[in-house]
Design brief:
The chain is α/β, with parallel strands linked by helices. Helices cover 39% and strands 17% of the residues. It is a peripheral membrane protein.
């Protein structure tokens, strides 16, 4: 129904407007009687064989919603009924910011892809905390944190610390995002020295608590082998719980969309099917050289159940959806979980 009826209609409209219209529709729908039960019966797959225990958390299934879809934690209770095993909010910054100028979200239907240059648009971490304090669902929630655009890289650690402290009591795990291509100079924080400083500082703060929270790092798909090896070394040194591979790419290689159309869109991170193979290769590389106690979440180009299985066979412990969720709808979550039960 989604692909044959709803998606063709939605894809006629501006992508960012559709996102907010859909969010409003979901909010409204959940005020109606029986919607929760109907949604659960359609999309949730409950089976002990799907459960995963990672870094002290018990995931009901290994399929999550990636950061970027519910930046401000407005739809936690609603999306909890769509079959996900966990939801990641953000990227959140200390201060609210509007993000980059519009238009900033573009579909590439011929490639089953999206280009975005949103720029960490969010209402600020404190607004998200207030919502999370009131949530009813017990679904696992991850907090993806970044820095404000106006904050220079030399002061970025303070931004990450602020959001870490603010979210500590209301999320189950943390993700440090230094890999978005849409905030100027952010990816420079992936360099060895600044990344070591950032992660060690956050881990020092984390260890002040009686029960520290899992701390993960989200990396770009555009790192070379030497940079990936630096990431592995830093992950071990900082005692990270896991790595999320990968964020969006700045590459435009191999696209079926016309070069003129792509050039007209301009800058931004590409996600979706063109990223499938490369992100899986990175997962495989990381799994080969990381200690087993550092877990991997595979994200990037998961458009089918087979894509998710391939990520997990390459070494991912969990997977996340974003672009695949937009192109395939919530039934993709169901198909992945049902596929896993056949293996």
């Amino acid at each position: 129904m989604y692909k044959s009826l709803l998606r063709p209609l939605l894809f006629q409209l501006d992508p960012e407007k559709v996102h907010y219209l859909t969010a409003d529709a979901v909010k409204f729908g959940y005020k109606l009687p029986f919607i929760e039960n109907i949604t659960q019966s359609m999309f949730q797959v409950q089976d002990q064989r799907l459960e995963r225990e990672l870094f002290g958390l018990k995931f009901p299934n290994p399929v999550g919603l990636a950061a970027g879809f519910d930046k401000d934690a407005k739809l936690i209770d609603e999306f909890a009924h769509f079959g996900f095993g966990f939801i990641e909010i953000g990227t959140l910054t200390p201060k609210p910011q509007s993000g980059n100028e519009k238009p900033r979200l573009f579909r590439l239907p011929k490639d089953q892809a999206i280009i975005n240059r949103m720029g960490f648009n969010n209402e600020g971490v404190d607004a998200a905390v207030r919502r999370l304090e009131k949530r009813k669902s017990s679904i696992i929630v991850g907090g993806n944190i970044g820095k404000n655009k106006v904050t220079p890289n030399e002061e970025a650690t303070n931004d990450y610390l602020y959001s870490f402290k603010a979210l500590f009591d209301v999320v189950d795990y943390f993700v440090v995002n230094v890999s978005s291509p849409n905030t100027p100079d952010l990816r420079a924080l992936q360099d060895k020295e600044p990344l070591q400083k950032l992660l060690l500082t956050l881990q020092e703060e984390n260890q002040k608590h009686a029960t520290p929270k899992p701390l993960l790092l989200k990396i770009a798909p555009d790192l070379n082998s030497e940079q990936l090896n630096d990431i592995i070394e830093i992950a071990i040194e900082a005692r990270l719980s896991g790595i999320i591979a990968t964020n969006t790419t700045v590459s435009r290689a191999g696209l079926h969309t016309s070069p003129d159309t792509v050039a007209g869109i301009g800058m931004g991170g590409l996600s979706g099917k063109p990223l499938t193979h490369h992100s899986t290769q990175i997962v495989r590389h990381l799994r080969t050289y990381l200690p087993k106690e550092i877990k991997l979440i595979g994200v990037g180009g998961i458009m089918t159940a087979d894509d998710a299985v391939e990520k997990m066979q390459a070494g991912a412990d969990l997977v996340q959806l974003y672009t695949g969720f937009i192109y395939e709808g919530p039934a993709l979550v169901t198909r992945i979980n049902k596929k896993l039960l056949t293996l």
